[in-house]
């Protein structure tokens, strides 16, 4: 197995990470002089310590062995990124898998791009590289987004720019963290999809969320089935007064179904009202200017 991401040139990193590691560089032979930043050099593995801010703590051993074998055959295609602590010591910023696999492959040195970075930049770059991995589950991505917001003091629009995602995408991931722990574990373990989770979020009652989650797992319900189930439960829980019951019309069920799907899509509770003649209105509430801008982005409003 080869490290597919390693086939890209340094300038081909993800949008967010590339923006942080901007600037030209040149290849230099080891030993490296102090503060030789923005260069690529072959550095002894023994001079590099791992990143204390690395958000990913588990690496599949079989995958590492396969990557090590690829490195034995092809070498390191894409340099790791480090910051220089002193003339003889470096700290890993990104490229943990390549670094560990190089050790397994028996390499003495590894090509590394050297740059300056403070602790916050270290955390930010490690999180962004982690997010750009293709095999992350939705909860891992959501937790990384949350850490970028809280520990790196980023706003949601800034976060979207850093990771190359729309603000609505970021918001949908963050909303997953409002679900009960059991459901978050289910998402992490691929028992349910993000689509299932987004439908469950529209239930306000936690016990009901858990009940629907168990039903999805036990009966292997599709996302569409879950949306219909949530709509039905929400409709039954509204308990309309007698006068409202008299005013029900054939479009009511279809309108409620649309209301549930729109609420899932926009990430907020949408109100759809209609008359027996087929007329009506759609109300999309927002709680802040940022929330309004998020909704406008979904509508492609300009």
TrEMBL record:
<dbReference type="InterPro" id="IPR004437">
    <property type="entry name" value="ParB/RepB/Spo0J"/>
</dbReference>
<dbReference type="Pfam" id="PF02195">
    <property type="entry name" value="ParB_N"/>
</dbReference>
<comment type="similarity">
    <text>Belongs to the ParB family.</text>
</comment>
<dbReference type="Pfam" id="PF23552">
    <property type="entry name" value="ParB_C"/>
</dbReference>
<feature type="domain" description="ParB-like N-terminal">
    <location>
        <begin position="41"/>
        <end position="131"/>
    </location>
</feature>
<dbReference type="Pfam" id="PF17762">
    <property type="entry name" value="HTH_ParB"/>
</dbReference>
<dbReference type="GO" id="GO:0007059">
    <property type="term" value="P:chromosome segregation"/>
</dbReference>
<dbReference type="InterPro" id="IPR057240">
    <property type="entry name" value="ParB_dimer_C"/>
</dbReference>
<dbReference type="InterPro" id="IPR036086">
    <property type="entry name" value="ParB/Sulfiredoxin_sf"/>
</dbReference>
<dbReference type="GO" id="GO:0045881">
    <property type="term" value="P:positive regulation of sporulation resulting in formation of a cellular spore"/>
</dbReference>
<keyword id="KW-0238">DNA-binding</keyword>
<protein>
    <submittedName>
        <fullName>ParB/RepB/Spo0J family partition protein</fullName>
    </submittedName>
</protein>
<keyword id="KW-0159">Chromosome partition</keyword>
<dbReference type="InterPro" id="IPR003115">
    <property type="entry name" value="ParB_N"/>
</dbReference>
<dbReference type="GO" id="GO:0003677">
    <property type="term" value="F:DNA binding"/>
</dbReference>
<dbReference type="GO" id="GO:0005694">
    <property type="term" value="C:chromosome"/>
</dbReference>
<dbReference type="InterPro" id="IPR050336">
    <property type="entry name" value="Chromosome_partition/occlusion"/>
</dbReference>
<dbReference type="InterPro" id="IPR041468">
    <property type="entry name" value="HTH_ParB/Spo0J"/>
</dbReference>
């Amino acid at each position: 197995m080869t490290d597919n991401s390693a086939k890209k040139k340094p300038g081909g990193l993800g949008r967010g990470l590339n923006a942080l590691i901007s600037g030209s560089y040149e290849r230099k032979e080891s030993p490296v002089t102090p503060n030789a930043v923005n260069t690529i050099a072959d550095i002894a593995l023994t001079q590099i310590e791992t990143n204390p801010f690395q958000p990913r703590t588990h690496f599949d051993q079989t995958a590492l062995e396969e990557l090590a074998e690829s490195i034995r055959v092809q070498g390191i295609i894409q340099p790791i990124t480090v910051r220089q602590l002193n003339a003889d010591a470096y700290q890993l910023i990104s490229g943990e898998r390549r670094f560990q696999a190089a050790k397994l492959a028996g390499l003495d040195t590894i090509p590394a791009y050297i740059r300056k970075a403070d602790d916050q930049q270290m955390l930010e770059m490690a999180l962004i590289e982690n997010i750009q991995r293709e095999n992350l589950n939705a909860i891992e991505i959501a937790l990384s987004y949350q850490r970028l917001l809280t520990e790196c003091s980023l706003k949601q629009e800034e976060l979207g720019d850093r990771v190359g995602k729309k603000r609505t995408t970021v918001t949908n991931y963050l909303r997953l963290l409002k679900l009960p722990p059991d459901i978050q574990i289910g998402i992490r373990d691929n028992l349910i999809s993000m689509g299932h989770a987004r439908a469950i979020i529209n239930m306000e009652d936690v016990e009901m969320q858990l009940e629907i989650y168990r039903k999805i797992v036990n009966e292997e319900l599709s996302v569409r089935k879950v949306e219909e189930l949530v709509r039905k439960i929400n409709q039954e829980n509204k308990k309309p007064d007698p006068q409202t019951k008299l005013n029900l019309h054939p479009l009511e069920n279809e309108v409620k179904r649309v209301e549930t799907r729109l609420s899932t899509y926009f990430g907020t509770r949408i109100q759809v009202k209609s008359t027996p003649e087929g007329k009506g209105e759609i109300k999309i509430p927002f709680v802040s200017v940022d929330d309004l801008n998020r909704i406008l982005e979904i509508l492609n409003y300009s």
